[in-house]
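= Protein in question =
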Amino acid sequence: MHTDDRTFLQGNLWLSPLLALLLALLLATGPTSVAQAATEMLDQVVAVVDDDVVMASELRERMAAVNQNIAAQGAEAPPEDVLIRETLDRLILENIQIQMGQRFGVRISDAQLNQAMGRIAAQNGLTQEQFAVLLEQEGRSYMEIRENIEREMIIQRVQQGNVNQLIEISDQEIENYLSTEEGQKLVQPEYRIIHALLPISSDTSDAEIEKNRTFSEGLVERIRDGESFEAVMTSVPQEYAFTGGDLGWRKLADLPSLFQEVAPTLSRGETADVFQSPSGLHIVTMADQRGGGDMTINQTKVRHILIEPSEILTDDQARDLAAELRERVEAGEDFGDLAREYSEDIGSAAEGGDLGWTSPGQMVPEFENMMASTEVGVVSPPVRSQFGWHILEVLERREKDITEDMRKAQVREFLHGRKYQEELDAWLRKIRDEAFVDIK
């Protein structure tokens, strides 16, 4: 075939003029005689991709969805041949990744898929049942949407699994970024302020200003007594024309200059005293804040012995053995020696059961609750977790400053996100170049 006989597309993909024309006809709205005549060709193979194929019906369905999204956004659609080319290329790239997922054994459980569907429904203010009904009313298949979401989740896992291992962020990179103005701004605390302004004109009398101030201070007291900001402000008589609202999450430097001095003085949930500016009287509540400041956590140094039930050791027998070992420790035997002999926690047994310093949320809830209620130097009674029966001894407790660790973790996450898209684009080009693709 000569070059003039075909149209070259991005990524060395091409469609013959005949296929391009057929797809254009198939994508036309409403039943036409040409579309009906082409029905049998609808499921023809458009492209062979490694061990799989892309069908004309897949391309048609995706094109319909793309056109629908463009129309919903009120955007201008690109020329149809460009849209066909880009959509086909996207389908081929997705197909490559789905096949990789199959080879890697990537699976999405029903529970994970249900959670994803639930989040989508919740974003639309619906339950999953309501979401399913709405889709059916719109002529769309809930199961088809579910399958598409599963496909997207598989692709996302394949991408993350391959791209994350390509990204390396050194401690020096983190230090260098923290030394920049951009880095310093990143680790600044963020505030979510709710604000109400009662405007005051230049000709307002002192008596009227004082009246408005007294009224505003009464509102502040109600908020401080536990009423929500929204409930208090919606109860205000119309003669007091307050304006304002939620300013959203903002860094200190991004707040209006009026609030930059107030914000650092407020704790989460605290409301400032009424203050006045040339624009009027202000009521300011710190709805929430995150990051910045000193951060400390309570840590516990602990060791344990784990006894797992098995085919030859019933659950009751495992509990009784754990209780017996506790009695032996209390009678004077060394906890570490018993852990090395009896504990079935491979990771800690050789260390005498020592788990080191643990932070909140690091252990399973049953273990953590027992650890929190056990005094230093005391061996706990047996406690059951998903792993088996434990006895534990709290060795020390401390309060650890993790401010610097959190700052570095925040920067590492930011730098990772910035590198991720670059590495993803490069990886997608690589797998596309390495794949066998034959456009029919």
Observations:
- Residues 403-434 form the longest helix (32 residues).
